[in-house]
């Protein structure tokens, strides 16, 4: 699944357009490398977003089969890494 789709599908960001803008701005990294929107994610990848308040990292646990998942199931697909 593409990085921009994954970020919105697992409720890390609210909309895919926001995810795309973040990727264009160069604040999203996958496994330590700057990511493009078309980058495919795999289980085990580490996604880091450089916010103004500091970086926030996530680990991909599963790839969702649907466009979005319920917020109650977020823990099954993504884990925050400190």
Automatic annotation (TrEMBL):
Top-rank taxon, per record: Bacteria
InterPro entries, per the entry: RqcP, S4_RNA-bd, S4_RNA-bd_sf
Transmembrane segments: none
Sample GO molecular function, one term: tRNA binding
Domain (RNA-binding S4): residue spans on this chain: 1-60
Keyword list, A-Z: Protein biosynthesis, RNA-binding, rRNA-binding, tRNA-binding
GO biological process: translation
Name recorded for this polypeptide: RNA-binding S4 domain-containing protein
Protein species of origin: Sulfurovum lithotrophicum
